[in-house]
From TrEMBL:
<feature type="compositionally biased region" description="Polar residues">
    <location>
        <begin position="417"/>
        <end position="427"/>
    </location>
</feature>
<feature type="domain" description="DNA2/NAM7 helicase-like C-terminal">
    <location>
        <begin position="684"/>
        <end position="880"/>
    </location>
</feature>
<dbReference type="InterPro" id="IPR045055">
    <property type="entry name" value="DNA2/NAM7-like"/>
</dbReference>
<feature type="region of interest" description="Disordered">
    <location>
        <begin position="457"/>
        <end position="483"/>
    </location>
</feature>
<dbReference type="GO" id="GO:0004386">
    <property type="term" value="F:helicase activity"/>
</dbReference>
<feature type="domain" description="DNA2/NAM7 helicase helicase">
    <location>
        <begin position="249"/>
        <end position="676"/>
    </location>
</feature>
<dbReference type="Pfam" id="PF13086">
    <property type="entry name" value="AAA_11"/>
</dbReference>
<feature type="domain" description="DUF6469">
    <location>
        <begin position="98"/>
        <end position="204"/>
    </location>
</feature>
<keyword id="KW-0547">Nucleotide-binding</keyword>
<dbReference type="GO" id="GO:0005524">
    <property type="term" value="F:ATP binding"/>
</dbReference>
<dbReference type="Pfam" id="PF13087">
    <property type="entry name" value="AAA_12"/>
</dbReference>
<protein>
    <recommendedName>
        <fullName>Helicase ATP-binding domain-containing protein</fullName>
    </recommendedName>
</protein>
<dbReference type="Pfam" id="PF20073">
    <property type="entry name" value="DUF6469"/>
</dbReference>
<keyword id="KW-0347">Helicase</keyword>
<feature type="compositionally biased region" description="Basic residues">
    <location>
        <begin position="457"/>
        <end position="474"/>
    </location>
</feature>
<keyword id="KW-0378">Hydrolase</keyword>
<dbReference type="GO" id="GO:0016787">
    <property type="term" value="F:hydrolase activity"/>
</dbReference>
């Protein structure tokens, strides 16, 4: 449970107040702010005008997001409430602060909708788990929302601190009084954190805010950032630009970096630089190289991006440069900090970032800088133990058995485990690196012992303290002085044991300090002393283990000079002397702050204040706007074209900022905006895009290193006006990869899927199952070929529509790994979800299939650009060529281009894909009929499924589906003379039905199958074909029905019609019926019946009328 120590009430946040003021009716009114939101202009008359332009759109976007969440409230995470108590800050009527006790899930009982609270969560409180919107506003409990605030990192989520919009009436269950209590549930609706931070940035006190960059971006002079400062152009650069030569940059990348460095060294103007990075042009490489130069310049720089994924990408690339450039083990990493939500970042999957991740760093330093038992305590204790071990032993004997580092079981366990794991620290065992320092494996072991275990123990501290107290009392009552004397360590064992514990603690603390402390607080001279001390401590520990059984050992421990004795004693004495000298140096010269081990905020501020490079999302950068924080010099915003301009005001107003570098590509997708009102108002527009629109110069990275030239050709022509060149790597032989045989699977293909059918799911997103099945068939063949050729392949399946993404995921299932490190991986995502990603093979499903060329938001140029630029070696685009050409969109150009280049194919051109279209047809027929209208079970022959898969005309396919649907509902064509095929000699003539579908004929009969203990009439669809093929089919059916008994043929002919609706008949199988077919063919045809039944629809038929 989070406890509040501050009595001072914070003012209720403006945005939160607005949200609290909305009734449920207000939330459900999608036009609540329609007339209040104005279009955001491209130019502004003042800073005040600029900031205020975003406030109402921000409120509308918050409203739209809440409306969307409430509309799907049945899927929202929720948890039951056990108790509600007022907080110390509670003060009606406004400051309605509560602590909510929630029900903890039982072990092994995890729900898909289990709620894990986070600060900023907007929650509803309901007396039921909501299944519909009305459940949030019941007569017993009206609409009530709250926001989660002031959660500590150590909070386990059982107690949730909240600020409520209204008083919360709640009666807890009391078993003693037999009171059942109230039912209450917390339902998570949304999270307001980012929008609250934007609101704060738009309302900063002008007297305290840093408006230098804001003023710059409001200037109408588009030459800002284009011309170097005349006062600084002649000045010699302070940077060793030779560093840049080692990065392997092309001319455009190098020029962009040098321009940014020149900007940093200008202190006369505040500038905003734009770097334009189209897909595959090495944008991340360029940013990381720039940041490394700034790192070497000691330029305090914030690097941020819209998403955690983007932040991690550039941080990982920067860390490769930093790690390669380290000269003294990990000394210097303290100047780099990455912070954010570790769970959302999935930081556990990025071990290479552990040493710079803030929360990891804070945990380590909490142990090392503890005022009670940190590094200073161990250094001083070790000095005392070396200088006067006899005095320390005397104190040990005087102390009771409860002292720290005594013979307690816990310390025995810690010391014993570490000692056993590190009994030998020789180079051979990999414990000491080339510099004689502790290696990574050993650091992890020590970190586990000195950080993780204490953290876990602290959570159970109260119960442990109580039990320990009881044990100590019992021990005192039962023990006597003779027992104590018997358990006391000898002098030699005491010194060895204490030395080992302090050595292990210092082996953990010293590398942690020079790794995580900023170099401004850790001079290199001090770090060098630590390096030497570590090597001596390792030696000392080894010598303790090898000499403790020898005579005269006590003399060495007492500090008596033994240089004339055995060599091993001389080494031990020398090591002790050297260690003592270095320990005293650190004790006197290293001055570091101390902190409480269990209160983390001051440690975080210390780490952030001294860092040179800071990485976080643009939203999280608000945490740097705190009192006492060291000023920043520059901000680098990666993926700047995806960041809403309103959100960019958060980092751009941080204290000290003088220059901003924006890296992005306005030709790709902008930020997501929920509200259509806000979309029209340009709320999703980025600062990058607005400046480009105004004519601000952008430095182009003009060589792409990702796509095969055949893939890059179309997007380069359409989106970048042929300004992008192909890199030498993509033009080499290694890029001529073929993952499947056939021209259709070359580097670039458009595959026409004309027999598809677009439909909408329950959330009004569009899907096309024919394309989904073809995608699945391609993936199947890729996997098969990958296994055969032992070729590693990464596959991406992309569609603009969420419903299509889900359809592909459902068909593909979990057959393939999504781990890109595996030999074969498949990732299925929306276009928006794939921005920034790349794969070896990309398969795009365009989905749309209609006669009028309607393609909706598929026509968006930015979305098309992202989809078409994700592939390295092969890009295969699935779509209905006719629909796309008729759309008049960018996709018309693509289809025409594909035909001109000989890259246009039809799905029927490849036999392997026929199975995909066949599966799609069967699936379509299975799903086409509303269940409430089903009266007849329908069975499709193999010939029919093959024939309908070959039909390319979408309208014809739809007519067939509609006709089969009508037949299954009991409808029959009244024009009987036109429905029968007259074959007087054949057995099938009385059964065969022929219905017209445009120029084709649908052939069907009534047939009989066994189902449980009954015979059942079914519809058997034999084929869809031109009329001149019917005689041949009739002959085949004559053979089929010729094997039926007379009794079975009569059952096929039997009809029951009520009010012009035909109903299937059923008959019990009794003793009077011996067989259904001639005995010679009974077994063979029973097997045929089973095969036919296996091809039946998934929908079970209704019971027939008796």
């Amino acid at each position: 449970m989070s406890t509040t120590t501050k009595e001072k009430k914070k003012p209720i946040h403006g945005l939160v107040n607005l949200v609290f003021s909305w009734s449920l009716r207000d939330v459900l009114n999608k036009n609540l702010y329609k007339d209040k939101v104005k279009e955001i202009p491209e130019t502004f008359v003042s800073i005040d005008h600029y900031l205020k332009s975003y406030i109402t759109p921000l409120v509308e976007e918050t409203h739209a997001d809440l409306l969307s969440c409430i509309s799907t409230v049945s899927h929202a995470p929720s948890v039951e409430v056990l108790d509600v108590v007022t907080s110390r800050k509670f003060e009606a009527p406004k400051h309605l602060y509560y602590e909510v006790l929630t029900k903890r899930a039982k072990e092994g009982e995890k729900s898909k909708t289990e709620y894990k609270p986070e600060n900023g969560d907007l929650i509803a409180l309901s007396d039921v788990r909501p299944r519909r919107i009305d459940d949030l506003n019941r007569p017993e409990r009206s609409f009530l929302i709250a926001i989660v605030q002031d959660m500590d990192d150590e909070d386990d989520g059982v107690w949730i601190p909240i600020l409520s919009s209204n008083l919360i009436p709640f009666q807890r269950q009391d078993n003693e009084k037999g009171e059942q209590g109230d039912k209450l549930f917390v339902v998570c609706l949304s999270n307001l954190t980012t929008n609250i931070r934007i609101w704060n940035a738009l309302h900063l006190d002008p007297d305290k805010a840093n408006r230098k960059i804001i003023r710059t971006v409001l200037q109408s002079d588009v030459t800002n950032g284009e011309v170097d400062c005349t006062d600084c152009s002649d000045r010699e650069t302070k940077t060793d630009v030779s560093i840049i030569q080692s990065f392997g940059l092309d001319d455009a990348q190098r020029e962009a970096i040098l321009s940014c460095i020149a900007t940093r060294e200008c202190d006369h103007r505040n500038m905003v630089k734009l770097i334009w990075g189209p897909p595959g042009t090495g944008k991340t490489k360029t940013v990381a190289s720039l940041l490394y130069v700034l790192f070497k310049m000691k330029c305090r720089t914030l690097t941020c991006a819209p998403t955690n994924i983007a932040v991690l990408g550039v941080a990982k690339r920067l860390m490769q440069h930093v790690q390669d450039g380290l000269e003294y083990d990990t000394y210097g990493l303290g100047d780099v900090v990455l912070f954010g939500n570790g769970e959302r970042m999935k930081i556990g999957d990025h071990e290479d970032l552990f040493d710079v991740f803030l929360e990891y760093r804070v945990d380590v330093l909490a142990s090392c800088l503890s005022s009670k038992d940190g590094w200073k305590s161990s250094v001083r204790s070790m000095i005392c133990l070396i200088e006067d071990p006899k005095e320390q032993y005397r104190k040990y004997l005087e102390k009771d058995e409860n002292k720290e580092h005594d013979t307690s079981d816990d310390e025995e366990e810690v010391e014993g485990n570490i000692t056993n794991e590190q009994s030998s620290l020789s180079n051979k065992d990999g414990k000491i690196n080339a510099h004689g320092l502790v290696d990574k494996h050993t650091k992890n072991k020590l970190w586990s012992k000195f950080v993780l275990e204490p953290l876990k123990k602290n959570k159970k501290k109260a119960s442990k303290d109580k039990k320990s107290s009881q044990r100590r009392n019992n021990s005192r009552a039962e023990g006597d002085s003779s027992n104590k004397e018997a358990n006391a360590l000898t002098f030699e064992k005491f010194v060895i044991k204490e030395s080992k514990w302090f050595i292990n603690h210092l082996l953990f603390c010293l590398p942690s300090l020079y790794t995580h402390i900023p170099t401004s607080d850790m001079p290199l001279e001090t770090a060098n002393v630590m390096f030497r001390l570590l090597k001596n401590l390792q030696t000392l520990k080894t010598l303790f283990a090898t000499t403790e059984t020898f005579e005269r050992y006590k003399e060495v421990l007492l500090g008596i000079d033994t240089t004339n004795k055995a060599r091993r004693f001389a080494n031990l004495y020398e090591s002790k002397t050297e260690c003592l000298e270095m320990l005293k140096f650190l004790n006197e010269h290293l001055s570091l702050p101390t902190f409480s081990k269990y209160f983390k905020p001051p440690i975080r501020r210390f780490c952030l204040k001294g860092a040179c490079l800071i990485f976080c999302t643009a939203s999280s950068s608000s945490k740097l706007n705190t009192q006492g924080m060291s000023p920043l010099e520059m901000v680098v915003i990666d993926e700047a074209a995806q960041l809403k301009e309103s959100e960019s005001t958060i980092p751009l107003q941080l204290p000290g900022l003088r220059h901003a570098i924006l890296i992005g590509d306005e030709k790709q997708l902008p930020a997501m905006v929920q509200s259509k009102i806000c979309q029209k108002a340009e709320f999703g527009r980025s600062l990058f895009e607005r400046l480009v629109t105004l004519g601000h110069k952008k430095q182009l990275l003009n060589v792409q290193y990702r796509m095969h030239p055949k893939i890059s050709l179309f997007p380069n022509n359409e989106f970048y006006h042929k300004k992008i060149m192909d890199g030498p790597n993509v033009k080499g032989e290694k890029y001529e990869k073929r993952f499947l045989t056939g021209d259709i699977f070359g580097s670039y293909s458009f595959i026409n899927v004309s027999n598809g059918n677009e439909e909408q799911d329950e959330r009004h997103s569009t899907r096309n199952k024919a394309e989904a099945f073809v995608v699945a068939e391609i993936v199947f063949n890729l996997h098969k070929e990958s296994i055969s050729s032992k070729q590693k392949v990464r596959v991406g399946c992309i569609s603009p529509y969420k419903a299509q993404v889900f359809a592909i995921q459902q068909i593909v299932g979990k057959k393939y790994s999504t781990d890109i490190k595996s030999d074969f991986s498949v990732n299925v995502r929306s276009v928006d979800g794939f921005q920034g990603g790349e794969e070896d093979v990309i398969i795009i499903s365009t989905v749309r299939c209609n006669g009028n060329g309607s393609v909706g938001f598929l026509s968006n140029l930015q979305r098309a650009n992202v989809a078409l630029t994700r592939a390295r070696y092969c890009l295969w685009i699935l779509g209905n060529g006719t629909t796309l050409v008729n759309s008049g969109s960018i996709w018309k150009n693509l289809v025409i281009d594909a035909k001109a280049r000989g890259c246009y194919f039809d799905v029927t051109d490849d036999k392997r894909l026929n199975q995909g279209t066949l599966n799609a047809t069967i699936e379509s027929l299975n799903d086409m009929r509303p269940k409430q209208n089903i009266k007849w079970k329908v069975i499709f022959s193999e010939n029919f499924t093959k024939s309908i898969a070959r039909i390319k005309d979408a309208e014809t396919s739809k007519e067939v589906n509609t006709l089969v649907e009508k037949l299954s509902s009991g409808w029959r064509n009244s024009e009987k003379n036109n429905n029968r095929f007259n074959n007087k000699r054949g057995n099938s003539s009385v059964l065969l039905e022929v219905y017209n579908v445009k120029h084709l004929k649908l052939i069907w009969t009534i047939d009989i199958v066994k189902q449980n203990s009954r015979y059942l009439q079914v519809l058997k669809i034999w084929d869809i074909l031109p009329g001149y093929y019917i005689p041949k089919l009739a002959k085949d059916l004559d053979i089929h029905f010729g094997q039926y008994t007379v009794d079975m043929m009569n059952r096929c002919k039997y009809k029951r019609v009520e009010r012009n609706i035909a109903f299937p008949m059923t008959w019990l199988i009794d003793g009077s019926v011996i067989s259904t077919r001639s005995s010679a063919n009974r077994d063979r045809n029973d097997n045929l019946s089973r095969q036919l039944e296996a091809m039946s629809l998934r929908d079970e038929p209704r019971s027939s009328r008796q």
